[in-house]
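New to this. Explain these tokens.
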Amino acid sequence: MQKSEANKAAERTRRHLIAASGEVFAKVGYQAATTRQICLKARANAAAVNYHFGDKLGLYTAVLKSSIKLEERRVAQHELLSLPPQQALSKFIAMMLESVAGVGAQDSYTRFMAHELSQPTPRLALVVEGIIRPRALLLCEIVARITGQSANSRQVRLSAHSIIAQVMLYMHARPVMKLLWPEWRMDAAALRATAEHITAFSLAALEGYRE
């Protein structure tokens, strides 16, 4: 019984550390974050990170894996590929834009990933394999269905890059856009309108590559 209670307490501490570190990493990035900051936020012993995760990188890896699992549930590949390709593209763009635009609950995830992409950690390969590559292959498959070309063709890959570049603008250029267009806001309504625009713009371009 005592062992069971100890295990439960250890698991609670691990969960608290992951939740607290997710917020800290999202705010300041991996490089600037300290285990002391994280332990204070989690109300854990100063040695808790090393005890439960080995070191800061081990904790960061746990946070990444948790984020990857949540994103896998949110963007279900088989569901998109069961839709007509134009509708699949529209839904894919909307979900990706929600991920990178930082609206509502996605804001912490957006800032977390923005730090990783701008200042890569030793776990960038995990991000690529767990999140980026599956999305890229899914987008290539959708584009291939629209154009009638092979998903592995150079044209399909370039088209996929162009589509995702439109989406990623809203992660990397937000500070610039706020200065360029002071009235700009990315609320839920603007998110929908932007997703519709990117979809229409992309479909118009893809029509020119249809075989």
Notes: The chain is about 80% helix and 0% strand. The two ends are 67 Å apart (CA to CA).
